[in-house]
């Protein structure tokens, strides 16, 4: 190297090229993953905090890449959003999850995650209506999970889409509550059926005097005043469950009750009714 500055540049450049190249490869692979049947849905049970009965499942997307193995949605969902594939993937998720849920007892719900990008299209309520029609799933059995990110621009269009969805009779859940740096003003307008308390508040929470316990207590109080249910996400231990229960949270989800599982296992569990 002729100079330190140049040397540094040369040192970093290949890595950056490599990262960009890897991303490009992943991008072209994702474009065909749907057609090749490499995407599938895992289902994680959601249980009643006191009875521990299974009340529903959340559909979580998985990608079995032929060479890389399992690629995390944390990696490929943002990619799908950037390259304009999320609407197509989102509709596939909705259709697959609704079709699967028709095999479960009528009172067991299925929750589907929606990307904020899916709200940009006017077609969302129409797509949901069409999928319910095609699959024959009762709208009451479908729950749509939305994050605060949907409300960042606070535009009327989003509220029109939400009104359209509510009119269909599906349930709405606010996902990752409290992590989105958003104001609470959307709660003035959107009648969510439940809020999901993010795992970051739940993990390691067993001391009722802790800051996380105080935050969970406040979220549960707010939800109950607004007639919304609460789900605690990421419950891994009996200690966490005990605290969550004592704070009045009605539903729980987490490895303690089941990791996301293949559809056949979820169907079996749905028929049995209890995770214990
Ligand atoms: P999320 O919606 O907040 O989903 C919860 C995540 O926490 C899931 O990760 C789940 O496997 C994980 N989890 C559940 N219980 C526990 C626990 O007890 N301990 C720990 N450590 N983790 C737990 P996953 O499946 O990797 O999904 C990550 C994120 O990817 C989701 O976060 C969601 O934002 C997104 N995602 C997944 N599927 C879809 C989809 O079909 N559409 C869209 N738009 N996003 C999706
Ligand atoms: Ca979710
Ligand atoms: Ca979540
Ligand atoms: Ca989360």
From TrEMBL:
Domain EAL residue range list: 23-274
Protein name per the record: EAL domain-containing protein
Organism encoding this protein: Sphingomonas alba
Full-sequence portion shown in this chain: 305 to 580 of 694
